[in-house]
């Protein structure tokens, strides 16, 4: 691309995550310019995108008519921040694909779509190739903290037998809705009811992260055991700006996923978010040659990390070969177990 | 590539690093098979590669006749572990390139060849493209520990103002030649003479790592200030299996590189290897949004890490687009500063 011309972007979906991305791009990025914005909410129709993001006007009007936007602007990249379920998400992207526009999205299930629906993934992979566009699901978790980071570190190992990833998040400085979501201040019984009814769902990316790691290293998962969300019970009182938790009440959530290959535990993902988690960190432990621990402190803030990934990866998505890709296609660097020829693309 | 057929490899250069790679591949890898081995040493001519590596015979004979090996075997990948200076290295690879064979090498200067010689790099990039092959310089340092690891972590940042990377290596468990190389047990005056005469050179990859980080993040370095190798003087006696160091003597080496952009320090690389370094670690600190520290413990062992990178990246090199690439082309994931359109390839 000629450096004289900006990357031209259309944004689709102006919910809380979408507005975070829009704000960041408008306020802090150069060489990446919005030429269109799409949202189905009637109250946003015709409004200026910059004003919707509570910045000054940017000259781009929001509309519900996605087809017209893509046909008229022919953008380089569409940034989708709409829905999480893959089956709802993929049909939304057809209008971009058929207009030759690459797609990047924070849709969690798009991070490893084959795991969710192999048939649908193959169909959209073919559609992307046919129109010469690349589609990628990205974010910090899944997509970075509990998968990519471990895969990349494993590239400097001559052997990896087991992977253990821990996210230990201190929820104290987070927003009130996040603290509420992890059950802070609830009684244990109420928490159990809330998880049973689906009112508390916990972090949704663990199985996707598990599959991303296994795919990168070449392990075939025979079984994935998932537990939680379970309550983390306060042993002594703890409080935040938003909640006061008595001893015996819930201060947060813990979840686990274990990946089994040929009867052996190969991958363990351990996710916990609670008030007063000290120290807070994100740790990857690789057991192999060498055996190392890589600890990030403090634990990475999810919201900003997802905004960062969705924006920083735009050039990589535009440059990549066509298809519905995963982060393992973009970053093909990891320990390669077993038959190495499996990792060579057909046609190479 | 059909999984039924192995990746076919030729090894060039059977010095200590080469033999480590050969041993690892023969003993521990599947789906990657040597079909040829080249070394200029007359005493190796005709010997079995497996026996040279002190394993059982593997049916591949070592020869000095590289041209014949490449013409007869037409391999997928050539693994070069020969020399460090780029100007000596690149001409050695012509025989592989002209026979349509991809090249991966532990040649340190190949990790960011543009910095060493832009003209020669352009010439070989064109030669690679003409013959449809990919060439990559890889290793753990440069190529991973003090560059790639920081670049990849920065992808989850919405802003990066400054990068600080520290390698604090405990030399106690390392081989005698390594301990000798860092000056363990020398008097300070003798150490100074040894660095002045070039008998002690220190770690050679700092400026290459500096350039790799700047390239990934899009910073143009105005100046790089390099200091050392300087002696780390023992305050109290310290010893290893190989050396006893009295207080006041040298227990190891420290080196630093600082990268300046528009008058500001943006990158600092801090390398130290000495007896009794406790704790030993590899740390990346990113100052931006968010501000994080990522510490690997214990510090990564260089020799095994380089073997791992040279082998684990072979499928990525075979799959990649033709050209003389760097690890930033293989892993295009990092914080992208300034004009984002600069990171989009011509023709995308």
Summed up, the helix count of chain A is 13
Q: Find the CATH topology of the largest domain in chain A.
A: Rossmann fold
Radius of gyration of chain A: 21 Å
User: Span between N and C termini of chain A?
Assistant: 26 Å
Report the portion of residues of chain A in β strands: 25-35%
| Average residue-wise pLDDT of chain A | 96
Number of strands of chain A: 15
The low-confidence parts of chain A are none
Can you describe this structure?
Chain A is an alpha/beta fold and 348 residues long. Chain A folds into 2 domains: 7-140 and 307-347, Rossmann fold (3-Layer(aba) Sandwich); 148-299, 2-Layer Sandwich (Dihydrodipicolinate Reductase, domain 2), CATH 3.30.360. Chain A contains 13 helices and 15 strands. The first copy, chain A, has helices at 16-28, 49-52, 66-73, 86-98, 113-116, 118-131, 148-154, 176-181, 188-197, 206-217, 302-312, 314-319, 327-330; strands at 7-12, 32-38, 62-63, 77-80, 102-105, 134-137, 159-170, 223-233, 238-239, 244-245, 250-261, 264-274, 281-289, 292-297, 323-325. In chain A, strands 3-2-1-4-5-6-15 form a 7-stranded parallel beta sheet, with helices on both faces. The first copy, chain A, has a 6-stranded mixed beta sheet with strand order 8-11-12-7-13-14. In chain A, helix 4 (86-98) runs parallel beside helix 6 (118-131). Chains A and B meet through helix 7, strand 14, helix 11 and helix 12 of A and helix 7, strand 14, helix 11 and helix 12 of B. Strand 14 (292-297) of chain A pairs antiparallel with strand 14 (292-297) of chain B, so a sheet runs across the interface.
């Amino acid at each position: 691309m000629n450096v004289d011309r900006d990357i031209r972007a259309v944004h689709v979906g102006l919910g809380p995550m979408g507005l975070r991305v829009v704000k960041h791009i408008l306020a802090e990025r150069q060489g990446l310019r919005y030429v269109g914005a799409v949202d189905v909410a009637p109250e946003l129709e015709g409004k200026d995108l910059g004003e919707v993001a509570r910045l000054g006007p940017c000259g781009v009007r929001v509309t519900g008519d996605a087809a017209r936007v893509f046909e008229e602007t022919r953008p380089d990249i569409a940034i989708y921040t709409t829905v999480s379920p893959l089956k709802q998400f993929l049909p939304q992207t057809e209008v971009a694909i058929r207009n030759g526009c690459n797609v990047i999205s924070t849709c969690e299930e798009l991070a490893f779509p084959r795991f969710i629906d192999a048939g649908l993934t193959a169909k959209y992979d073919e559609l992307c190739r046919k129109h010469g566009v690349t589609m990628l699901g990205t974010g910090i978790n899944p997509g970075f903290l509990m998968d990519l980071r471990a895969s990349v570190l494993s590239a400097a190992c001559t052997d990896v037998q087991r992977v253990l990833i821990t996210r230990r998040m201190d929820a104290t400085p987070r927003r009130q809705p996040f603290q509420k979501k992890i059950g802070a201040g609830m009684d244990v019984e109420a928490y159990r009811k809330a998880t049973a009814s689906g009112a508390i769902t916990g972090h949704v990316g663990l199985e996707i992260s598990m599959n991303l790691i296994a795919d990168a290293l070449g392990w075939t998962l025979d079984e994935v055991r998932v537990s939680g969300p379970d309550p983390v019970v306060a042993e002594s009182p703890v409080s935040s700006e938003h909640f006061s938790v008595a001893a015996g009440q819930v201060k947060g959530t813990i979840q686990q996923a274990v990946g089994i290959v040929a009867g052996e535990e190969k991958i363990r993902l351990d996710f916990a978010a609670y008030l007063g988690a000290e120290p807070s960190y994100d740790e990857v432990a690789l057991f192999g040659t060498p055996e190392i621990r890589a600890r990030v402190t403090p634990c990475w803030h999810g919201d900003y990390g997802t905004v960062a990934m969705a924006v920083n990866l735009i050039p990589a998505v535009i440059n990549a070969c066509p298809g519905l890709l995963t982060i393992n296609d973009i970053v093909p660097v990891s320990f390669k177990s077993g038959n190495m020829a499996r990792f060579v693309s057909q046609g190479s």
